Amino acid sequence: xxxxxxxxxxxxxxxxxxxxxxxxxxxxxxxxxxxxxxxxxxxxxxxxxxxxxxxxxxxxxxxxxxxxxxxxxxxxxxxxxxxxxxxxxxxxxxxxxxxxxxxxxxxxxxxxxxxxxxxxxxxxxxxxxxxxxxxxxxxxxxxxxxxxxxxxxxxxxxxxxxxxxxxxxxxxxxxxxxxxxxxxxxxxxxxxxxxxxxxxxxxxxxxxxxxxxxxxxxxxxx
Length: 222
Ligand code: DC
Known about the structure:
By secondary structure, the protein is of the alpha/beta class. It has helices at about 15-25, 35-45, 50-60, 90-100, 100-120, 130, 145-155, 165-180, 205-220, and strands at about 5-10, 30-35, 65-70, 70-75, 80, 120-125, 140-145, 195-200.
């Protein structure tokens, strides 16, 4: 049976994952955070001192698995649960960097397509509507101003030890936006048939409702 696929793309910090997770739970779909695949690959790359060594090892030695516990996605790298470990600023930058490599994109492409063939999914990333699932049933491009995204991240992190400053977060977001939109292969861009939602002045529930309305209008979920 054909599965239903919803693609959500957009820049770092636009709220894709929390919104996609909520909408997936309302629909009973699997939420797939594809950024975690790039992040775990970035973590793997740190074991190698040169890019050549990393790319040589990728195919044979980097085993990634996504597992779901009560709807929450966990990612395993060579048997280790690295779900928490990949959420550092260092890994964010490294993931953005290695995601420009054609070998890395090719390596992760089939994994993503396979999951979407198997389950009804909401998949979030940068190239889901353009490359991974060009025939997705619904495509959303979720964005917000860089300042708003940095300020949301700042509020999430401010109580943590060694929390970055707002300025550091804004700088990091701008750098990742630049990397993600300027790479040669599968750059971040809004698919022609995607619905663009700018959440700069919208709340979490408002965005979820807008997406649920689109789902009702456009998908036959009977
Ligand atoms: O969504 P995220 O911030 O966890 O993603 C980390 C990096 O991975 C992001 O800067 C770019 C890359 N990425 C990508 O190139 N394509 C995707 N589908 C998802 C993430």
